[in-house]
Amino acid sequence: MTQPAPDSPPTTPLDRPWLVLGAGGHGRVVADLLLALRASVLGFLDPGLAPGEPVGLGLVCLGDDGCLTDPRYAPGAVYVANGIGSLPGQAAPRRQAFARLAESGHLCPPLIHPMACLAHQVAVGDGAQVMAGAVLQTGARIGHGSIVNTGARVDHDCRIGAHVHLAPGVVLSGAVGVGEGAHLGTGCAVIQTITIGAGAVVAAGATVRRDLPPGTTFHPAKGTPEP
Ligand SMILES: CC(C)(COP(=O)(O)OP(=O)(O)OC[C@H]1O[C@@H](n2cnc3c(N)ncnc32)[C@H](O)[C@@H]1OP(=O)(O)O)[C@@H](O)C(=O)NCCC(=O)NCCS
């Protein structure tokens, strides 16, 4: 008997050139992802650099966000990737950039590195970014604007909210839920079926074995008791 076709993993569209908003470390990783996909990358937008200033990867700064009103970079002519990263307590600029792009009508489709491993029946929201070496197992859902950073592993049926940052090397076991805006620090691990509340922070390297309430920081090395 023929099996029904499974839902294919999501991909990044390459039918228009890309701009990268933000020329810092995260922005260069995003540009490198696009180059690995053989996308056409026009350059960076960053108010901190002069137009024409080299950023790396053979790319230059084209100007600031004001360039998005230039007809050459109009919605429909380009895609714009959000190259602004996020850290605990410093997540606002990335979210604001996402909102500005949505408001100006610039599409910010999901970015999936060609060396990420995505199973069937995975969903990745607009503006979400899945970096090199990340693994998303079947049934995983990544909310809009989120980052699944280098080498992070998201096992089956995890539900990741919007604007979450899973930092490099995070490991989520099956069916973990992560609320909007949470930050899971580098190399932390979460056992199966745990819920991490919205806006919560998990310290780099911590192991989470109980649900974490919204807005709390779990930092065992600093004496935070297990919730
Ligand atoms: C949890 C965290 C937000 C706490 O930040 P903070 O409250 O500013 O803590 P501090 O940096 O002041 O450190 C307080 C103490 O805890 C220690 N510490 C901080 N984070 C730690 C961690 N993850 N594991 C062990 N110890 C840690 C510090 O060395 C310091 O020790 P000391 O008092 O003996 O000097 C932060 O340490 C963290 O883990 N951030 C995540 C970073 C990340 O994911 N980066 C990804 C970039 S892509």
Automatic annotation (TrEMBL):
The UniProt site entry described as Increases basicity of active site His is assigned to 157
Q: Which domain of life is it from?
A: Bacteria
A GO molecular-function term, please? transferase activity
Residue positions binding substrate: 89
Asked if the Swiss-Prot or TrEMBL record annotates the protein with the keyword Nucleotidyltransferase, the reply is: no
**Alphabetized Pfam families for the sequence:** PglD_N
Record key words, sorted = Transferase
Q: Which CDD domains match?
A: LbH_AT_putative
Domain PglD N-terminal stretches: 19-48
Sequence positions that bind acetyl-CoA: 165
Q: Which residues form the active site?
A: 156 (proton acceptor)
So what family is this one in?
Belongs to the transferase hexapeptide repeat family.
Protein name (Swiss-Prot/TrEMBL): UDP-perosamine 4-acetyltransferase
Q: Native species of this protein?
A: Roseospirillum parvum
Which taxonomic lineage does the organism of this UniProt entry have? Bacteria, Pseudomonadati, Pseudomonadota, Alphaproteobacteria, Rhodospirillales
